[in-house]
């Protein structure tokens, strides 16, 4: 609990700024329920107490069955449908910023980040790791589980985690399901340790100087605790509640008295446990001396039985929640006295949270060829937007008025509709530039034929639909990121073993566009017309030799026009990257349709036209293939 206050410097700066202004208000993902600080009032904090064996048995069974399903690599859709409500809210505080809302979003998360995150998505489809439950405490409507990961019966370092689940029964009173989940894992080694305490000490001193409440004298508070008197706790609920309450008063003496003499406390911001009450008391004292007095730990939920307790909590400053200060605790209790014998405390990981980066890194490790489009994208963005002298003209951050007018005119003549109809507002643009521009857009639009690459059972980090729209504006700037972040289909030498149907494509419009047989011919016609337009339209630009020479002169000073040529080369090089997976979806073995496969990969533009026109269709459910 206490080391959750080891905030990163940006949060400390934000804290100081808002304290000076006299108010602290934050808007951040996963804001916890508002609770009054300075204790754990029963009216504000839910305590789930298992009053009988049956009360906690159902919750324990849900947790154990969920872990068994994850370990057996059950399909995420089945896992979510079996154990979670439709409107579930899931927070992976160790890896991601945003809360995941809804069963569909959770299914997508589990598929997309499997094996590269923590919590529910910590297991990959092909790795040998398993989730091992260390202990569970469950009540009638909540459960808290302490667990770690193992591989080949050996515990993996830095994988201890705590999850807190809010449980509910189906509307018909049937199966128990998880309505809310909060999952937090320990930070990697080396642990932060006392580094954050030193920063907090400086912050507290600064608050004292400017008139803030700062820290409170621990010795004075200990005397106050003695004067008020204490009562021996008789239940785990009392112990945990009074521990938080005493800490918020900075009454370290009473807080530490709630622990056994030989207690073992694991604050997972530290490498070593605190063994014994006196050593743990020293730790609490150090933290209390560093924290501003306005900091309060607020318990959001608590589940207790006669041997264990689990809590989920957050930190507030003057009654306002602080960002990235949530956490979970798991305690083992003495059956006779209810005092705490041991415990684990894991705070939310401070930014940066690396779940997305780990998912992306796993893709590069599995397929190093992704480095090719990734490196090219970095070079492309640098050359186009920043560099001077590599491509003609001013960089994209310093474009001239002439360039903006050129972009406007090309957009008005999109797909050559305006000039072909002789519309009065159609501007006159060099025909070869118009031809290249519209050929490029037709080429980009042809990638819509691969919309089956984005499905509920195969999500991508960057959804293909929006990326296709982006390609109409920044072409390779959107194509290349999609290529190095997309999820690959499963490889199979004999073709697809899991059938992909037309109905699996998300969205009616996407489904019709992706499998529209004339798509290739239509866009091929647009591309062919663009080439002919560049060669023969607008006779005032002269014969081929004259218009070609003037086109080269234009490119020599035009950043936008020269970037179109680069885009054509990139499209030619990467158009075939979709083909193998697309044929896999259509249950075509790797040694079948060799001509069509090679044409799509090796013949720029027209090879893709041919492929989209002649490829086998996706099967439709309910019809015999």
State the end-to-end distance: 59 Å
Quaternary structure annotation: single chain
Shape assignment: elongated
Strand content: 15-25%
Task: Characterize the structure shown.
- This protein has three domains: 2-30 and 191-347, Nuclear Transport Factor 2, Chain: A, CATH 3.10.450; 49-185, Nuclear Transport Factor 2, Chain: A; 372-491 and 504-614, no CATH class.
- Helices cover 43% and strands 17% of the residues.
- It has helices at 9-21, 53-71, 76-83, 103-112, 195-210, 218-228, 236-248, 252-257, 277-290, 355-366, 371-385, 401-412, 417-420, 431-446, 464-474, 476-485, 508-514, 519-536, 544-555, 559-574, 579-585, 594-602, 606-614, and strands at 46-49, 84-92, 100-101, 129-138, 142-151, 154-155, 161-169, 176-185, 259-267, 274-275, 295-304, 308-317, 320-321, 327-333, 340-347.
- The strands form two sheets. Strands 1, 9, 10, 11, 12, 13, 14 and 15 form an eight-stranded mixed beta sheet that branches. Strands 2, 3, 4, 5, 6, 7 and 8 form a seven-stranded mixed beta sheet that branches.
- A hairpin with a 2-residue loop joins strand 5 and strand 6.
- The chain is elongated and about 100 Å long.
- The two termini are 59 Å apart.
- Residues 36-55, 218-238 are annotated as: Disordered.
- Residues 219-238 have a biased composition (Basic and acidic residues).
């Amino acid at each position: 609990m206490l080391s959750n206050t080891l905030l990163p410097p940006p949060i400390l700066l934000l804290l100081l700024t808002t304290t000076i202004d006299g108010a602290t208000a934050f808007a951040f993902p996963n804001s916890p329920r508002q609770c009054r600080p300075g204790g754990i009032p029963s009216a504000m904090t839910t305590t789930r107490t298992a009053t009988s064996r049956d009360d906690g048995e159902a919750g324990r069974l849900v947790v154990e069955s969920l872990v068994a399903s994850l370990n057996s690599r059950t399909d995420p859709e089945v896992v979510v449908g079996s154990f979670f409500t439709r409107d579930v809210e899931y927070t992976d505080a160790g890896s991601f910023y945003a809360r995941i809302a809804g069963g569909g979003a959770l299914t997508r998360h589990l598929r997309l980040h499997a094996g590269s995150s923590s919590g529910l998505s910590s297991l990959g489809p092909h790795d040998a790791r398993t989730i091992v439950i260390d202990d569970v405490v469950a009540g009638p409507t909540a459960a808290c589980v302490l667990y770690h990961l193992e591989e080949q019966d050996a515990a993996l370092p830095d994988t201890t985690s705590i999850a807190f689940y809010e449980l509910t029964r189906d509307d018909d009173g049937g199966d128990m399901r998880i309505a809310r989940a909060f999952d937090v894992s320990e930070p990697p080694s080396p642990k932060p340790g006392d580094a954050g305490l030193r920063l907090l000490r400086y912050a507290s001193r600064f608050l004292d100087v400017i008139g803030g409440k700062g820290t409170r004298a621990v010795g004075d508070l200990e005397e106050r605790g003695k004067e008020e008197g204490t009562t021996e706790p008789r239940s785990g609920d009392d112990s945990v509640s009074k521990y938080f309450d005493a800490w918020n008063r900075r009454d370290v003496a009473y807080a530490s008295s709630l622990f056994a003499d030989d207690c073992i406390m694991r604050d997972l911001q530290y490498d070593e446990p605190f063994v014994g009450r006196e050593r743990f008391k020293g730790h609490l004292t150090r933290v209390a001396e560093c924290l501003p007095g306005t900091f309060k730990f607020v318990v959001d939920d608590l589940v207790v039985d006669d041997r264990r307790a689990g809590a989920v909590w957050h930190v507030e400053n003057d009654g306002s929640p602080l960002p990235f200060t949530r956490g979970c605790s798991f305690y083992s209790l003495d059956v006779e006295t209810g005092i705490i014998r041991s415990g684990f405390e894991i705070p939310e990981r401070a930014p940066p949270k690396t779940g997305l980066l780990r998912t992306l890194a796993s893709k590069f490790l599995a397929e190093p060829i992704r480095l090719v489009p990734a490196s090219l994208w970095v070079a492309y963005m640098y050359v186009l937007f920043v560099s001077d002298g590599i491509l003609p003209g001013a960089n994209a951050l310093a474009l001239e008025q002439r360039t903006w007018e050129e972009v406007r005119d090309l957009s008005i003549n999109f797909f050559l509709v305006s000039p072909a109809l002789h519309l009065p507002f159609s501007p006159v643009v060099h025909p070869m530039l118009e031809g290249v521009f519209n050929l490029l857009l037709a080429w980009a639009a042809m990638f819509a034929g691969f919309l089956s690459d984005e499905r509920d059972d195969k999500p991508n980090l960057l959804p293909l639909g929006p990326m296709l729209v982006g390609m109409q504006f920044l072409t390779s700037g959107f194509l290349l990121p999609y290529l190095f972040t997309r999820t690959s289909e499963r490889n199979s030498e004999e073709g697809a073993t899991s059938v992909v149907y037309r109905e699996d494509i998300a969205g009616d419009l996407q489904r019709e566009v992706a499998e529209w047989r004339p798509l290739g011919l239509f866009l091929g016609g647009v591309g062919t017309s663009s080439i002919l337009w560049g060669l023969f339209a607008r006779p005032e630009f002269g014969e081929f030799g004259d218009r070609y020479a003037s086109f080269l002169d234009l490119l020599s000073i035009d950043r936008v026009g020269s970037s179109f040529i680069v885009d054509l080369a990139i499209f030619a090089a990467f158009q075939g990257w979709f083909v193998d997976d697309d044929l896999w979806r259509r249950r075509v073995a790797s040694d079948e349709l060799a001509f069509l496969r090679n044409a799509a990969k090796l013949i720029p533009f027209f090879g893709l036209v041919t492929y989209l026109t002649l490829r086998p269709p996706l099967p439709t459910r309910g019809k015999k293939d």
